[in-house]
Amino acid sequence: MIGGWWRVRLIAALAALFFLAVAVGIRVLAGDGILSSAGPVAQHSGTALYAALIYAGAFVAAPRLRPPVAGALAVVFCWAVELFQLTDVPRQLSEQSIVARLVLGARFDPVDLLWYPVGVLPLVALHQLWARREPEHPMTVPERVRRGSR
After folding, report:
1. pTM: predicted TM-score of the whole model, two decimal places
2. Which DSSP state fits 38?
């Protein structure tokens, strides 16, 4: 039986796979290959979905995070990756590896800095609403109650 924090991890992992599938699907439907330069819809949706994937990944790594904390961490991580693109390292790595290109990108785009919160903030709000509606959700039950102490 899967429950508690493992349930959070499983849901987060499935959400991350969903965000990845949607991002790839948009690129395919837009006629762009994963490695080609994308049009504005594919580019900006991909940026927001990348941030959403990072948000979900935060819960795979640390399922006890609160949604606002996970959201802040996801946006800061995305901004750090974007700013890292000001160096030549991500471009060089992207030329050698598809995975590096998908994770690090290749070139800095200041507009992306605005799209990362667009991908994360709605998820934080939805996550907060969902956690409040689920009385047994691990994020709504105080830690002392989960441990059985008073």
Report:
1. 0.79
2. P
